[in-house]
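seq:
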Amino acid sequence: MRIISYNVNGIRSAVKKGFTDWLRSDPADVVCLQEIKANKEDVPVQEINEAGYDVYSFSAQKKGYSGVAVLTKIKPDNVVYGNGYEQSDFEGRVIRLDFGEVTLINAYFPSGTSGEERQTYKFKWLVEFFDFINELRKQRPNLIICGDYNICHQAIDIHDPKGNKNSSGFLPEERAWMDKLFENGYVDSFRHFNKEPHQYSWWSNFAKARENNKGWRIDYINVTEPLRVSLTQAKILPHIVHSDHCPVFLELETQAS
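struct:
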């Protein structure tokens, strides 16, 4: 099973930049998108279908904001829209698909960069999401949690850790949440294979940040511990350019393959 997680920063914008042409190249079996910024009726379903994928999307109530989608060549057994928390569901942040014994969660974590109010909500959302996945794994122990986490875990994951020590996305409390995640039976699939620095998934649009690789690794595909033995490869795809993010990729052996 080949999985991609990708914040497209507006699916309609990404399509104009060749996104569906890229889909036709068969980059993965399942492509998890965040920040689609489109109502369900505005998602270009026909073009995506023609590229070989079925589409399951969960949009925010606010137009042109947030939203997640899963494009898949593998038929899911079950789809759940939202995680049951009112504001998170209002903002279209979580979608779940079950494939056999494996459950895929695609999540767009809130950003706190716009101010204190959103940072406060981000902390609240992190608590709720942690409770959600821990409760879910009691019944569904094989979880894959894809998404734009909007958090760099360690200094190795950000180009300027000292300069960003007080920046949303690299705050001590956010990093501690990631510590707690990985200490509680979740696996950073990329770091399972790759310990090298300077590997990022998002770059600012300013000061030639992407050209100079001054980025942040804030996009993850994490799995629960029972799936660790199934991991076969993980990588970041910085050469794919439809967004200020790039795709992250995981391959694992599962019964859903």
